Amino acid sequence: MSTEYEVGARETTEGRVFTVTGGDWGDVVEAAARADDERIIVNMGPQHPSTHGVLRLILEIDGETVTEARCGIGYLHTGIEKNMEFRTWVQGTTFVTRMDYLTPLYNETAYCLAVEKLLGITQDVPERATVIRVLMMELNRISSHLVALATGGMEIGSTTLMIYGFRDREVVLDIFELVTGLRMNHAYVRPGGLAQDLPPGAVDQIREGVKLLRSRMHEYDKLATDNPVFKARLVDVGHLDLAGCLALGATGPILRSTGLPHDLRKTDPYCGYENYDFEVAVADTCDSYGRFLIRLEEMKQSLRIVEQCLDRLKPGPVMVADKKIAWPAQLAVGPDGMGNSLDHIRKIMGTSMEALIHHFKLVTEGFRVPVGQAYAAVESPKGELGVHVVSDGGTRPYRVHFRDPSFTNLQTMAAMCEGGQVADVIVAVAGIDPVMGGVDR
Amino acid sequence: MSDETSGVPASRKEQPHREIPVEVVGRRQGMFGSQDSGDTSGFGGLTAPIALPGASSRPYGGYFDEVADELEGALEEQGLVVTDVIEKTVVDRGEATFHIAREHLLATVRTLRDDPALRFELCLGVSGVHYPHDKGRELHAVYHLRSITHNRLIRLEVTAPDADPTVPSVVSVYPTNDWHERETYDFFGLVFEGHPGLTRIMMPDDWLGHPQRKDYPLGGIPVEYKGAQIPAPDQRRSYT
Predict the structure, then answer these.
(1) Which of A52, A174, B16, B107 is deepest in the core (most CB within 10 A)?
(2) CATH topology of domain A121-322+406-440
(3) ipTM of the prediction
(4) What per-residue string of b and e applies to A70-89 under the rule 16 or more CB within 10 Å gives b?
């Protein structure tokens, strides 16, 4: 039997296990079927380009049909929640930003909103800090959705969509780099406000970026929205209706693709979202195509919100006035990236003993947060990102739990894929848009 | 009159001891919370209880009263004694927490989901918290429920002792909690009875221990940074 693929078989306690490399699915399935075993279980991933990171899909297939589908997760578990219990409250932002690495500013903001609720300083966060948070979050929504479209396109063979998506995401990442010093893992949003104000030239660059992105949005419509091949792959794939979404806890574009306009920015506004003018994108198709249309529309709405943010920006502080909470350090861009401002270090080291003591106490010891628990939720590009924070009155979190939307949404994979084709699994998972950094934490 | 003999006003006597509505989960020592070196501040002998916000009394404010009324009414209709089911209600920082007895959790969440006046359709998972010093109630399971119909959010809290770490699974009511309960089991050792397949989800299947319990060390190794040895995070000097 000479073929261009190789099937290795070995006996295990679970039965015969085939290891297949290369070749076409049809050949693979045929070869495995010849082995006189009616039940075939295929492990897709954890190292597979179309599984969005280290996701392992365990598919039981019959011919081309998936009869049962399960997820294996945990390959990217880094113990962030546990680690945060050994760091100060401020250091927590540097951890949460690494959870869902495509939506770092949402993780940071959600965490900071919860900490601020515990501190009772929600009302004291300066207006400018809140506007910049919204601005950065909405830019982040665009970059996250662009990756969802880009990788989703690549997985069904549309490399143009991939190139377009990553090209436009670069515009957003350049803005992030200018503002926070980093393209990802920003740790920009801090309890009480922001790490620092917008640098000179940022507003102009954001305005230009918004203009550029808006001029390119129609390219996605031209390339994909009415493309018959694209529609043939996405329409009616990954079907999940409203009852299924609520039972399985799916939120975000998956829930809105059933026609329910549930968006925390509208229903439970935070960061002053009630003052912005935007529409909630919905579709009524319950499928991957509807989710694609929603993401496209949400990017356009986010551009609107970003422009409104720029118009609202008024000069002012970006950190709470309470010196017992406000981070005393000042940052500056040095030759090796963002770091402590040498001018500020020189000032506190050389001229003010009190400032030095204050700085030292707040940086090494941190501030104390009153005993209690709080839950804060934001509408991340993937759905409801909830943070449950418990404090025992100490300088470190007693417990931080993230309800990551990717984690919950990924549970819908089985409901979407069982009974469908193997090739549709890829499309359905791309429609869920899971990011394993968020799933496994 | 007994009032005159004891010298205590009648109003005080009728309420012999007003319980302070707090829940002590630990004790803090010293001025700065440092434990690895001597406290030279002179306040090393200070101890203070770590007390979570205690039970609130009516009115709770906002929609919480309505939710509590509807829930209590619905539970009574089912023949349950409300005080047996809801151990206490805590309203703190604009959030309501209903502490539910674990044997009645399933009936409570089913009521919360199905009662038209409550209709909490969306469960936002379960978050475990380990309080090793909260004797007899070491493990807490915290649920957040969202009602899209009424635009409400509440929290349920259930406790279990370390000696019997079981809580009924709510997967039959909220299938979304399948993975959430597996995660909480994995990290806290809390066994959700009635879960369709309670296995580890993040840690390897043969892992020993439950990493997010407070008695499980963080671990780590010292690292060299700019010429100095920095100890592992849980070995560093700290001020809790």
Answers:
(1) A52
(2) Cytochrome-c3 Hydrogenase; chain B (1.10.645)
(3) 0.84
(4) ebebbbbbebbbbbbbbbbb
